[in-house]
Specification:
binds tetrahydrodeoxyuridine, about 25% strand, alpha+beta
């Protein structure tokens, strides 16, 4: 399947999530338009609001390495470190960050351990905030 590699990467990196507070393990695997993959996990902090989501970890890794053209991200999450059983949608903060770098056709790939669901960014966030003209 087209996004199998992203799913495999997201499932693998979620095991590295640093989640002593929520115990909710999230992994994200981001595909650039030129085929490069950046993976990220969530990283929590004792000062809770400093937590970084998996999606933003992956996106910031890509941007900081010079890759700004992004085509898809797979997100997987759940409490069981061994397997996922539910879909994990990106939070509003991460979707807002996606709108900064991704066009409305950017794909968000979700996996519940069984069936893959694919949404466009426009479906999840039809009316974006921007102050660029
Ligand atoms: N989390 C993510 O990594 N991505 C999301 O889109 C939603 C939430 C993380 C943040 C926190 O470490 C844990 O999941 C529970 O909210």
């Amino acid at each position: 399947m087209e996004y199998q590699k992203l799913i495999d990467n997201a499932l693998a990196i979620r095991k590295l999530a640093y989640v002593p507070y929520s115990k909710f393990y999230v992994g994200a695997s981001l595909l650039t338009t030129d085929g490069k993959i950046f993976n990220g996990c969530n990283i929590e902090n004792a000062s809770y609001s400093l937590t970084m989501c998996a999606e933003r970890t992956a996106i910031f890794k890509a941007i900081s390495e010079g890759y700004k053209n992004l085509s898809a991200i797979c997100v997987v999450g759940g409490f069981d470190i061994q397997k996922v059983t539910e879909y994990c949608y990106p939070c509003g903060a991460c979707i807002q960050v996606m709108t900064e770098f991704c066009d409305s056709n950017f794909k968000i790939v979700l996996y519940d351990g069984n069936i893959t669901k694919i949404h466009s960014l426009k479906e999840l966030f039809p009316h974006i905030f921007t102050n660029l003209t």
